[in-house]
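Morning run. Coffee first, then this:
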Amino acid sequence: MDFFLDYPEKLIYIDAEEVYCVYENLKKLRESLNMKQEEFGASVGVKKSTYSNYETGKTQPTSDFWISVATTYKVSIDYLMGFCDDPHGTQYSDGFSVNNEEKTVVKAWRVAPEDKKEIAALALGFDYVSKEKDASAAS
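And here it is:
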């Protein structure tokens, strides 16, 4: 079960395997841009006090805030929330990385018709049950 713990000075996200301090990479990003909290907050549409509370973990940032930071500064939300070490979301904490060619494959997979996914899965050597077959099996 995933949940947040709200400590007086930290907001910590906990899932079944790890603990994340969601504000650490947010602060790293701001500092890498040589911006003060007030400047950074204004750049993503929040007051200095709101931004400061997000960065220090006193308040949980909203989804809109994460999206605004990610789009404004071209970083991944995974990075901002501490799920990966790379600002572009391609190097994860466990050392697993995704290159541009692999990203292209994933994008193609997501839009491919189900029958093409089955063929690709067979060629790559893994099992894939299409949504249609899965639904008919459940009936």
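Residues 100-138 form one domain. Good start to the day.
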